Amino acid sequence: MRIEAKFKWLPTPLRSLLLFLVWLLLNNSVSAGHIVLAVILAIVIPLATSPFRTKQPLILKPGLALRHLMLVLYDIITANVQVAILILGPNKKLTPGFVKVPLDLTQSLPITILASTVSLTPGTVSAEVYPWAESLTEGAEPEQRFLLIHVLNLKDEQALINTIKQRYEAPLKEIFQC
Amino acid sequence: MTEWIISILLLIGGAFVLVGSIGLVKMPDFYMRLHGPTKATTLGMASLLTAAMVFFSTTQAGLSVKEILISLFLLLTAPVSAYMMIKSAIHHKLDSIERTKGKDNIEDDV
To answer: CB pairs under 8 A, 24+ apart, for B59-62?
Structure first.
């Protein structure tokens, strides 16, 4: 895990890239003037806002992150079809349930990303992270955390936990190296 | 040809958004109702926006890519809003239907 960026003037390289792309997309043009403006914004905004942010781990394996993104996009498409079938089928067949997934991740940014992917993928919506953030004491060693998820059609709890851990959590651990 | 692509994309998108809305009406409790709009709608909206992208790219000069941004924002906001709703539902101790498994996994508020 690395929190500090390589260059002081570029605190969050990927966010700068995102700002650059979003500016060009918003303007729908790649003219020289807009590129210069986008570069200026991409450098100035992260610099100006970095004092307000809580430091979060940086993405250390961009290639792997891109591959993970593709996997998640593919899963979103299959998830949509699966959930559509479940919704149109009879209600009586559905067995909803709450499942607690133990997390290996400790930092809040990777956990947020994991919770969002879980919400967008087949039949699960993340509901809560335990222990409650309010009950954590500042500066204390992070304890074991859990992600509470609601499952639309729960069949095998252990298999579901294993899938989430292997398919979504393991790549995130690699990407952030934590 | 492009008209065909646009029409098919619009139909797929409309179908998924419709299914999501049906889920919203049909499901028995709050937690299950949330599944429809968070998932079925993302792909539906993505198809509709792709159709818009194809339409404006072919009928007007230049490529239209603003729609990618809209899908990106939708993808970011859908899970967050679902999370906030389910969190407040748990806080208010909303009932889930009888056969829900693992209800004891929900911890009490501090």
So the answer is: B62/A28
